[in-house]
Give the backbone structure.
Amino acid sequence: MLSHAIGGLLVQGFEMRDFEAEYLRMNDEFVNRFSFQWLQADPVAHRRIVWVQGRENIGVSRRAYEAAQALGVSIVMIENPGHWLEDDHGPYAHFREAFIPVSIDVDGGFTQRVVNAIRGYRYPVDGLMTISDVRLPGVAKACEILGLPTSPSTAYQKAGDKAKTRMLEDDAHESVTLSSAAELSSLLESERGEQLSFPLVVKPALGWNSDCVSKVMDRKGLVQAVRRASERHADAASPSTSVVIEPYVDGPEVDANLVLLDGQVIYFDIEDDFPTRADDPGAGIDDNFQETQVVLPSALPQEEIHLLCESLHRSILRQGFTSGVFHCEARVRHSKMRYADHDGILDMERKRNEVGKQKSIYLHEINARPPGYLESVAVMLAHGVDYYALRILLCLGSIESRRIKALSKAFCNGPQFHLCILIVPQTRAGVMKSEDAGADLFRRHPELRQHVPDYDTYLKRGDVLGGPSARSLWWIANFSVTSRISRSDCLRRAQFILKSFVYELE
């Protein structure tokens, strides 16, 4: 019978005396998960893509490579020599068809090296992609040279530059961009400088992970923050000294992910990005904007969620994109919601005595690629939409439009649980002594594991921790904490994990 079936289901803990109830429950779940166009008239053709940059380890990439295999897409990896995917007999060699050792340093010759590697490969290539922010424009340019499907390289250049992104917005007049710190003195002496209203946010025009982003309360702090932001990437392979100065918007921050096809939004999800150290009213210049918790689904009212989708859709189109997976960060100005403490648990609540001010969306940045690995996995687990699978199909062009539309449909009954992405920050500087603090946590509290479908310990034994004031912001570990009971139950579990997480330094 199985030889003629599409698939089968192995059920554990099935009670025959409750057969009818169990069968109906499973049938309901099948309807929930498989109510999309998963059959097509034509056979699925094998495709081959080249993927530039293979990520730092298998723990933050496995599901992306598994998605390619499930789609019938072979990956040819272009990476620096010595990368962990290079060994043809290594434990993960089966995830790629071939490995091409080429320098992927982002310099003047990067694009041409990618082009030469593809032209020299023994088999034809159907698509080319990367999810590396700094490499997106160069890879798009390589696609243009090779005639492979892509969004314009100029659009990627705009998206990768926070100064250019900000100046495209309708509220651009509220912000200032500087090409270097040397321009600040002229700004402060001008009429525009006299109009600056604190607090302000200062950040490098190029950057990621909220790296070197500061909230400043006065001119002295502004001078210090601008100098620091301008120096952050001054010595990079592609140097940049540009700085963005923008108003601090006191409203709920969100991560918003949108999938566009031919100019239309075919899927989006909104996640609540909880307050950071820098959001505290008494925060200083050294308090950063590193994420603490990201929770889905969002607790924002539906009207604000739709406003986010509409506004961010327009912003993406302004940059020159019509198709792609986009990870945006934004705030809701004059939201109906605010964060407050509820019996020791921080979460949103509706404002009291709300003044009817006009709501608007303040865009922080557009990343023209899927969200980071932990967030992409969280969305796949909760909603059933795989952003990596969609990005792979999008790089193959319009020939895959049917599958892109089919796989952009979430579970019919909504997310299967509340999920909190918990970030464990560095609180001290030193050398990590604990072998794996995340694994240690589960050994002490094995009952937690069933509620954490995904986690990663980023800093392990021997790794150097720069502490909370480090120049580069990297967390120790992250946990995807779930609850099928309630959002508050999910947050309580996350709080318990954070309080129970311990590590030793040498």
User: Anything to note?
Assistant: Residues 169 and 315 are 7 Å apart (CA to CA). The chain has a mean pLDDT of 93. The first helix runs from residue 19 to 34.
